[in-house]
Amino acid sequence: MQQPFIELSNAIPTFKKRFEIVERKGIGHPDTICDLVMNKVSIELSKLYLKETGAIQHHNMDKTMLVAGKTENNFGGGKVLKPMKLILGDRATFDVNGRTLPIGEFVKETAKYWFEKNLRHVQKENIEFQLEIGSTSKELQSIFKTPKKITANDTSALVGYAPFTRTESLVLLTEKYINSEPFKSEFRAAGEDVKVMAFRNGNQIDLTIAIAFVDRYIDSEKDYFVKKQEMTQAITEFANQKSEFNVNASINCLDSKGKGLDGIYLTVLGTSADNADSGEVGRGNKANQVISPSRPAGAEAIAGKNPISHIGKIYNALSFRLADQIHNDISSIDEVVVWMYNVIGMPVNEPKAIVVEPIIKPNKIFSDSDKKHIQKIISENLSNIDQFCMDLLSEKIPIA
To answer: Does domain 30-139 have CATH number 3.30.300.10?
Structure first.
C-alpha cells in the first residue's frame, strides 16, 4: 500500500468558527426518497445476483428522478389527481452465463416495497414507475470476471471528516425526532417530508424546519396553526434539551394566516412530491447523513452505487470511518479531513492516494508515532475492505 500523504492544516476547526450551516432532509423528502429507494434497489439487486449467479454483477442504480404528481388539498382530506412518477435508470447486468434475469420487474417490485414500508400515506396507486435501465457495457462487466480481485469502476475522489459538530448532531437528532414514532403518534398531521436547516451564530442556533402536514388530520386553517404551534413548542423544547446552544425553532415559514388553503403547507400523502416538488439522487444527505456546506465534499452521490466496485460509494463511506477513527485515537487532533482517490481499473483496496489533513489542537504536538498510527488505521481498514463492502450490502452502514 502506498503510504498516505499527511499534511497539517492551519484551518480553524468547524466547531470553533462563529458561523455554521447544516441541513438534513428527512425520509419523505423527494431527494431522500430517490436516494433511499435506489440504494435499496442496488442492495437487493446485489443479493439477487449472489443468489442466482454466485457473485455480485456489474450494476449502478444511482440515476433516478421522482416527478411530482398533482393533488387537490382540502381540510379533512384531499385527493390525488395524478400519481407521482419514479423514473428508475442507469445500468445493470441482465444476462449471465446464458441466463436472462428479470431485472426490470425485480427493480420495480423492490421500489414498490420501499414505498409501502416507509411512507405511511402513499398507496400503490399513488406512484407510477418508469424503467430506463440499460445493459451494462462489456468493458465494465469484465471487472467482475474475477470476484476476488474487483477493481474500481470509476475514477473519483471522495472525502470524509471528523468530528461531527454539535450543530450537525442537533440537526440529525431533530429530524429523527420529528420522524420518530412517538412524535408521529402525538402529531398525526406531521408527514414524513421534513427538512431541517440550522444556522449557528456563535452560541445561538436558528432551526428553520419544513414539515409537510397531512390534510386529512387538519380541520381548518385555525386548526392548522394550533397544531403548528404545538409542534414548534415540542421541537424547540427537544432541541434545547439536546443542545448546549440557545435554540430557536420555526416551522413552515411561508405560511400566511387569512389565506386559507393557499397560505398553509398541506399535502395529501405527507410528502411534497405528491404535488409541489420533484427529487433526484444525489441532492439529499451526504454519506454522514447531513449536508454541511462549510465542509469539504466529494462530487459523488453514495446512493445506489455498486457496493463492491464503485468507489463513489465505498470511499464515500470509508473516508468518514477513517476520519472518525483517526480523530478518536489521536488526542492531539482537533479536526481531520481524509481524502481518498483512485483510478478506474485499479484495485479498490489500493487507492492511488489517501490525503490526511489534521488540524492540531493549540499547544499540542503531532508526533511521528501519531503519523504511524494513522498509517496503521488506514492499512487495517484497507485490509478489511471486503468486510466493509459487505457491511454496506447488509445496510449496517446508513447512507442517508
So the answer is: yes
